[in-house]
Design goal:
This is GCN5-related N-acetyltransferase family protein. It comes from Methanocella paludicola (strain DSM 17711 / JCM 13418 / NBRC 101707 / SANAE). InterPro entries: Acyl_CoA_acyltransferase, GNAT_dom. This protein is an alpha+beta fold and 317 residues long. The chain contains ten helices and 14 strands. Strand 12, helix 9 and strand 13 form a beta-alpha-beta unit. The protein starts with 8 loop residues before the first strand and ends with a strand.
């Protein structure tokens, strides 16, 4: 794909020194900084907001301090942040997550995010970053490149050679005990080694590698610590599996569910709902592939909250 603004721009691996510039790229999309005072939103200068308050506008990329922690975690977990530079100033950032997900996706590179400095949008920087993803995926021997995109950006990715493949159905399910065989396993030495090659039939909004990294990406920020992340390792109907829960301090308590296993979507979902029920969690958000949902919908006490599309570009037939 041709780019309007390739001349003078370079793309390289990002490091900790890039945190402030990457933060500026993300901050450029925030039109108004404010503080919540009850039901009111009161305008406040960015510098007067705490790190936790800034987090609420878009996560770790909203402060150089937390962006540095995030980049550090990415690099320690052998994932791949890249930055687009124009005259040594960051004008775009993207993060790649590489992992082996089993038969459908194979070895895949997932574009976890892609941001361009707002005033430079529409000048080919985003397309250049996507091209970088495809070239890097090819060099890594990947079979596919995937991305989870907001509907407003689907057309952009389609122009970059991606197609919408499948639909994810988001459910709010009541927990209860199901007839599924669950045997606890000791925790492994490495989450990466345990999940390598396993399909992720529940909770795959981004990619398996993205969600494994998410389990390890930690911050001492109160807004981040309002939720709790738990992991359990079990055999589900004889299949070694990992279940991960993001639990929220609400009344009644609820959790988001992620599952890695060859046991199949129905068994994984029911095992997760059973374990949560035993711990007093009332409701769970479960994301299923559309085909899996229609096959098991009648066996779950769940309501559809929405649906999401996933985009894929195959590099190998």
């Amino acid at each position: 794909m041709a780019h309007k603004e390739d001349k003078g721009m370079k793309i390289r691996h990002a490091g900790l020194d890039d945190a402030a510039g990457i933060c500026d790229v993300h901050k450029s999309h925030i039109e108004r900084w404010y503080r919540k005072l009850g039901a009111e939103h009161v305008d406040v200068a960015y510098k007067d907001l705490s790190i936790g308050e800034r987090w609420g506008f878009g996560g770790p990329w909203m402060s150089a301090e937390t962006c540095s922690v995030h980049l550090n975690n990415l690099l320690l977990q052998h994932q791949f942040p890249f930055v687009a530079l124009d005259k040594d100033r960051p004008v775009g950032e993207t993060e790649f997550f590489v992992g082996d997900e089993g038969p459908h996706f194979g070895k895949t590179l997932h574009i976890g995010l892609l941001y361009v400095l707002k005033k430079r949008s529409g000048h080919g920087i985003g397309s250049a970053l996507v091209d970088k993803a495809v070239r890097f995926a090819t060099d890594q021997g990947c079979d596919t490149v995937t991305v989870a995109s907001a509907m407003a950006n689907v057309g952009f990715y389609e122009k970059c050679g991606f197609t919408i493949e499948g639909r994810m159905v988001e459910l709010e399910a009541s927990t209860k005990e199901y007839d599924v065989d669950i045997v606890k396993l000791p925790p492994p030495m490495s989450l990466w080694a345990f999940t390598r090659g396993l399909p992720m039939p529940v909770g795959r909004y981004q990619s398996s590698a993205f969600h494994v990294f998410e389990q390890l990406d930690q911050y001492a920020v109160p807004e981040f610590m309002d939720c709790r992340r738990d992991r359990v390792f079990v055999k589900i109907n004889g299949h070694p599996s990992m279940l991960a829960f993001t639990r929220y301090d609400t009344v009644p308590e609820r959790a988001d569910v992620y599952g890695w296993s060859e046991a199949g979507a129905e068994a994984v979902a029911k095992a997760a709902l059973t374990l949560l029920h035993k711990e007093g969690v009332r409701y769970a958000t479960i994301l299923l592939d559309g085909d899996d949902y229609y096959a098991i919908a009648d066996s779950l006490d769940a309501a559809v909250k929405g649906s999401r599309g996933s985009l894929l570009r195959r590099l190998r037939k």
